[in-house]
Amino acid sequence: xxxxxxxxxxxxxxxxxxxxxxxxxxxxxxxxxxxxxxxxxxxxxxxxxxxxxxxxxxxxxxxxxxxxxxxxxxxxxxxxxxxxxxxxxxxxxxxxxxxxxxxxxxxxxxxxxxxxxxxxxxxxxxxxxxxxxxxxxxxxxxxxxxxxxxxxxxxxxxxxxxxxxxxxxxxxxxxxxxxxxx
Length: 182
What we know:
Distance between the termini: 52 Å
Number of domains: 2
């Protein structure tokens, strides 16, 4: 809220400013947008998915229901880059379609709402994303929105860098591109 010249909301919505009401109304979108932009240590989950008993009507041999809190895919163990596809499930949620076995080891970014898990740089990135989204409505200034957008992207990059530094280096599969042409 400071990015918009506003104080943080500390109580009920009674007496909240327009900026505070807009921030609260858009917080879920802001948070999910930030979560989509990285493989955050605090939001990474691992699951073993079992194939759905009903195969897709055509295409890949198996479908796997993605967890309800799924935001984005981080990794599927032992799977080629072109061996899966994510599609909508008409009953709600998402399917991962694949010719792989009856189970998948999946690492994904989950929809974490507990802000006490967030790093300081992630929180700052969320604040800047909020300011970017709300500047046109509050300040009517496109130049302020554009400036804030650049700062938000920079903070997301800093947060992603911090997250990668917390982990040991990963070994890259340097031949994946060559195998994709086979």
